Amino acid sequence: MIEPKPWIRWLYTLTLALIGGLLFKVIHLPIPWLLGPMIVIFISSKLFPSLPPLWPNAARNAGMIIVGYSIGLSLTIATLQQIGGQLPSMIGLTALLILFAVFTAYIITKISGISFPTVLLGSIPGGLTQMVILAEEVKGIDITVVTFLQVSRLMMIIIGVPLLIFSPIFGVDMDSVTEALAHSTASWSGLFPNIFLFAIACTGMAILGKKVRFPTAFILLPMITTAVIQLAGIHAPALPSAILDAAQLLIGSAIGLMLQPERLTNKLQMIALALGSGAVLLLFACMLAFILLKWHHVSPATAMLSMSPGGMDQMSIIAHEVNADIATVSCYQLFRTLFIFLAVPPLLKLIFRRIAR
């Protein structure tokens, strides 16, 4: 069978993404332009293998640059001073979350018989890219298992956290959020001319960071660049909701293609373990969110999104949708991301050397 040309597969994937986003929008599900494309593309890729979806990395990177810029808008002097007072809680709660992930990995190893290093790399929260790269560098690691555990947990969190946020537990009303976002939507005319400066600076720094292997360069560097330029006194315009929706679609479509359970040798066992460990980790994150809520008196939605063991870009998108404190959420997620990317790999390599001995 002749495989369709790449541009046909890209157009097909874009159509699926638009259908998913519109469907989730019509039935009033949370973050429809992230969840809709992700779920519809994932299901279609399994139901119709003869026409496999294809999504360019450049599209996902563009979405991450937009999200990084939108996060950078919230990093003002006042918010950074506020976050500085929460550094002890950032360190303590991040350490607890990672230690719990290590404990979960140990339990999965005992149940499944899969090597501890493989399960550990698949269980570290919020470090999909770095853990897969590290798995390629360490001998004896099953990269398929690592990727499956990381992606399946990420998808669970992206789906589960919004449902929790909009549940009676957190008391966030969908209608009130929609109305608030409608009133806060930025105008297209307000983008110009400053948006050209930020677009060039954010994109250039992201590409440069990727070349020097800066961790999650396409979201961190646009965020930092936007904050620095804004602190220098240049106005950074807010983005219209249509641009943020497009960024969600670009990211959600890429995530929908990442989960590939057909590559696993023991599918049912791994799926069950992945779902179980993801649910337990999410429950533990809820406990940490309760601690943060009592510690700093932030809103329940802000606490939950700050502690959710998912990607910074996804949690920041959800924070925008529910009017949570984006600065607090992004700073907690950023701290954990930097800790995982900079401190965890050397520690894991040390552990793996001890195990090998």
Annotation keywords:
mainly alpha; 17 helices; 357 residues; 0% strand
Walk me through this protein's architecture.
The chain is mainly alpha-helical and 357 residues long. 75% of the residues lie in helices and 0% in strands. It contains 17 helices and no strands. The chain has helices at residues 6-26, 32-47, 57-73, 77-84, 87-112, 116-123, 128-137, 143-165, 174-184, 194-211, 217-231, 241-256, 267-296, 300-307, 312-321, 326-342, 344-356. The longest helix is centred in the last third of the chain and has 30 residues, at 267-296. The protein is globular, with a radius of gyration of 20 Å. The model has no long low-confidence stretch (mean pLDDT 82).
